[in-house]
Specification:
DNA-binding; DNA binding; 7 helices; DNA-binding PadR family transcriptional regulator; Tscrpt_reg_PadR_C
């Protein structure tokens, strides 16, 4: 079992879904392709962590719907109590920013503008996802609560990233002093 497998199990605790639907649901939180998801679903079904049924469709090919089994929930609960690994950061943007000392100012501004556009797209994306979560599910204990707080996290991360890009742009324009843009928050 890999982390993606557990994420798929978690999504299936909410509702029965097709592989395609699972791919769409996991995308905001974990990058996964069809070629990764379908073999995992098959493997988990063979291990009796999932059950499946075929749904006939008149205008499209039949689709296979998956549901988590009691054995799958047991496996998921076992994973939930294990320690969480440290997050992995792999962002080409960060490596390019390390090299700005040798770049022309125009290159730096282009890179920043590209990232600002990306952050603006992400903000719109997460705001759209948030608008689709029913209001009665925005409470602790609902099945959608995890999705809601993760959508909020994505939205806040994108907003903070955009603020950072704007701060760097102000530095380049001489409109901001080189100092910490945000006060350091102490641990609680």
């Amino acid at each position: 079992m890999n982390i993606l497998s557990y994420g798929l199990l978690g999504l299936l605790t909410r509702e029965e879904s097709s592989g395609y639907d699972l791919m769409l649901k996991i995308q905001p939180h974990w990058q996964a392709k069809h070629s990764q998801i379908y073999p995992l679903l098959s493997k988990m079904e063979n291990e009796e962590l999932l059950s499946s049924r075929w749904v006939q469709q008149s205008d499209k090919p039949d689709k296979k719907m998956y549901a988590v089994t009691d054995k799958g929930i047991e496996k998921l609960l076992g994973w939930m109590i294990t320690p969480v690994t440290a997050p992995v950061t792999r962002d080409e943007f960060n490596l390019r920013i390390l090299c700005v000392g040798i770049a022309e100012d125009g290159s730096m501004r282009r890179i920043l503008n590209e990232r600002k556009n990306w952050f603006n797209e992400r903000i719109r994306y997460f705001e759209d996802l948030k608008s689709r979560i029913p209001q009665d599910n925005l409470r602790v204990g609902s099945r959608e609560f995890g999705s809601y707080i993760l959508v909020q996290k994505g939205l806040m991360n994108a907003q903070t990233g955009l603020e950072w890009c704007n701060w760097v742009t102000q530095l380049l324009d001489g409109q901001a002093a080189i100092q910490d843009p945000i006060p350091v928050i102490s641990e609680n």
